[in-house]
Design goal:
There is one protein chain. By secondary structure, the chain is of the alpha/beta class. It folds into two domains: 4-80 and 224-311, 3-Layer(aba) Sandwich (Glutaredoxin), CATH 3.40.30; 88-218, Glutathione S-transferase Yfyf (Class Pi), Chain A, domain 2. It has helices at residues 13-24, 41-47, 66-76, 88-110, 113-119, 125-138, 149-169, 182-194, 202-205, 208-218, 230-239, and strands at 4-8, 28-33, 55-58, 61-64, 224-227, 261-266, 274-281, 285-292, 296-303, 307-311. The longest helix has 23 residues, at 88-110. The protein starts with a strand and ends with a strand.
Length: 312
Amino acid sequence: MHEIILHHYPTSPFAEKARLMMGFKQLSWRSVQIPPVMPKPDLTALTGGYRRTPVLQIGADVYCDTALMARRLEAEKNTPALFPEGQEFVAATLAQWADSVLFLHAVSLVFQPESMAMRFAQVPKEFVQVFSKDRAALFSGGSAARIPLEQAKNHWPVLMARLQQQLARGEGEFLFGNAPCIADFSIAHCLWFLKGTPVTAPLVDDYPEIQAWLGKVLGVGHGSLSELSAEDALKIAREADPAPLPAESFFEPNGFRAGQQVTISAVDYGTDPVEGELVFAGVEELILRREDERAGVVHVHFPRFGYRIDAR
């Protein structure tokens, strides 16, 4: 059985979501540090061009997007559950809202000049310029648009009031009971991002009930991790065989066939296409087979929701 490997960097909010999910599952995992900006040659050798952070690797299987990672971790260890029984739809839907709407508001607030000045106070100016260009490229060509700062500030009290109301009306300490779930982690990573500087921390701290809830979610920790080099992660992929395909029937409503050469890309941001052979299309998941001289034969997994398939 292959180890769980997370390719990430410390300040990535979506990486924090993945780390918390593994802590919740009490999993042991290997940590591969990746650059926060392009180029990321070791990562893209595995993914075929997908550049968003984080990426989960298990042997020669590579999982893109935390929405799909959550389902893979649930398959790895089904208790405690990220998708609570009887509330799977509402938990997944709230998580998707948090990862898009709430996250884009958090990005706008975090990227305001005063906040960024504090975040990059000890960073060389050259890197700040590279970072700015990289993030502009990340959001170029997709459906997601930067929310103007004034609009984000105007919306924020509404978003926090609704979250506060849900916490007050719910049964238990978390959004859907007495244990956190995918919705808690998806909202928490956005607020964790805001807690990064004194400029944006009050946007969370001014709501005591939310601050207390966030402390409990973050308190699950990150599980048991140990460092792994990028080269060793590539070697693991190269020496492994991809796992058997899911038993679920192939289902592709746009007429793509198993074995067809296609590209898969995100539709919102980070839309770099990944080319390969479509080997599986399920209700939630798409899988491409691709070969790389450094990674060998790998299966790259994507969620169906939020991604598109195009013929090559």
